[in-house]
Amino acid sequence: MAILEVTQRDAVTLLTLNSPEKLNALSDEMLAALQETLDQLADDPTCRVIIIAGAGKAFCAGHDLRQMQAMRKTEDNGAAAFADLFSRCTDVMMRIQSMPQPVIAQVHGIATAAGCQLVATCDMAIAGEGTRFGVNGVNIGLFCSTPMVALSRNIAPKKAFEMLTTGDFISAERAEELGLINRVVAPDALAEETAALAEQIAAKLGSAVKIGKRAFYEQLAMDTAAAYAHTGVVMVENLSYQDTNEGMQAFIEKRPPDWKQ
At 32, is the pLDDT very low, low, confident or very high (cuts 50, 70, 90)? Predict the structure, then answer.
């Protein structure tokens, strides 16, 4: 049984975290599978959108604490192993945002600690009613410092800090209010609603979405003037695409575009 199941549905690729007995923890094996698969999909022209979901009763419960405790059996009490773990986890999170394809989290059950980080890192997220989100490490004496990076870039700092310091869960509805997820749907409609969003995006011009996603994250790190200057250059590049020319002409002529990509 693969720890990460890969299902291709036309232009949409579904990645299912498949370690339900561990609540799909981001173990060494899961991180390695995600990194390898994402690297492969980045170069796959048939894949236009990626969905990340979880098998069993939870989306993802964060890192594998039993595995982490086993890392302590070294002279440095696990310091080097822990540093390596968080570096590899960071690589996966950064890879998601550097992917040319939009990545959507399909969330159910719980998303805690690094699992909540995974949701916050994805470009979009849809959750089923009853889903709970938390960065709960503080409850066991481990502040969720790396999950904090993605969380604090999704929601207001004071709200993020409250979650980080209390260790409390928030509901899917509250997560939507705060901007952590895009929408909440009935649990039995979660897969269908997520697939519908993915298919809607997959129908757009792939090269335009690719350049747009890259520019989206680049401009977030800039001040306003630099962001406008940068995105102006991006739009000029986008306008040079033959398929963009075709899309504009098709709109003028009131017909569907005949895109080649």
Answer: very high
Beta bridge partners of 133: 111, 170
Residue partners of 91: CB distance under 8 A and separation at least 6: 35
pLDDT in tens, 46-105: 999 999 999 999 999 999 999 999 999 888 999 999 999 999 999 999 999 999 999 999
Q: For residues 216 and 195, state if they share a domain.
A: no
Task: Please indicate, yes or no, whether residues 168 and 225 belong to a single structural domain of this protein.
Answer: no
Residue numbers of the domain that contains 220 = 206-252
Across 158-251, the runs of DSSP E, i.e. the strands, are 170-171, 183-185
CATH code, domain carrying 94? 3.90.226.10
Query: What is the rounded distance in angstroms from the CA atom of residue 253 to the CA atom of residue 204?
Result: 18
User: Does 186 lie in the same domain as 116?
Assistant: yes
Q: Give the tens place of pLDDT for each residue, 122-143.
A: 999 999 999 999 999 999 999 9
Residue 134 counted as domain residue: yes
Cβ-contact 92, 55 below 8 angstroms: no
